[in-house]
Request: fold
Amino acid sequence: MKHVEWGEFRLGELFEFEAIKQAKSQKAIPTDNTENGVPYIVQSMSNNMFSRNVNKQWLIEHNEFPVSGNRIVLGVTLPAVSYQPVEFGASQVITAKSEWLNNKNGVFISSSISKLMYQFSYQKKPGMKIYKNMSVLLPAKNGGADFEFMENFIAELETERIAELEAYLSAAGLKNTSLTLQEQQALDDFKDLNFEEFNVINIFNVKNSGNILSRDIIENRGETPYLCSSNKNNAVSSYISYDEEYLDKGNCVFIGGKTFVVSYQEKDFYSNDSHNLILYLKNEEKRNKFNQLFLATCINKSLGHKYSWGDSISNRKIQKDEISLPTQNNQPDYSSMETFISAIQKLVIKDVVHYADNKIGFCRKKQMFV
Reply:
């Protein structure tokens, strides 16, 4: 990259722009995770602007036709940007398309555009005219954009990341995605589980977390998770090095006190706010990752409707709260929880393994013909 020639290119000269504004409320569109579904793209600055899959036929019947893919998508009221390879539904976005755009240079260019989005906010909104006049820095060759370099760079980066993923799956023992008889049974029996209410404090020891202000840390200068109340990245804001006196023990359920974001934390961590709560399972023999992932979901489902930014949870309030848990003989059925989450993990990892294997096979075939 350090030997690349760079040039500034005005987006209005590179792309044809189009405003996409669908009339129907997003909530009215039915979710569809089958082959009849298409991605629904919103003005989100996370998850590549993806919201969920929606029914394509419903969009057509309601004159909300899917947008053809192979476009860069830009936010109207938020500084969001992504590349969308396949057709999609959308609300309140601007798209940029060109005949030379593809899934390699599209990713490169959208990443380059994202570096310019810092100048916008909800108060200072971007828009069609602004995007057309925006100049982006791109690899250049013979006075034009060097698309060949962009495509080769993304291809090499993808190959490198897929190899790292393959190594991680093997080292973590996640390559075996075959369900055991017990795991398949746990999936089949889930709808028949008996749930009962339990006081939170009868299941967990509850404590407030430490309190390290963001102004007192140096971001990404350490290996210990620094947690906040965000629903992104499992509540991990950064990785830091700090006084171990303020370190909280992991292997617990963590609740962002002001936002009620619930997560499982495997490692020891630092926290940004003493309003955050830490829940340690009293039954230490059952205090493992799988059980606590299940418990974190139960807490979220049981209590999420009660708490919000204006009415946040606290150590005092949670003392009276109850959560619904699967039971056997009137006691929490930790064995069912553990087996069920183990099965879910395998189902999720199965798709990842399939993706990695296909990508690696494709790259190796490609190398044979180079």
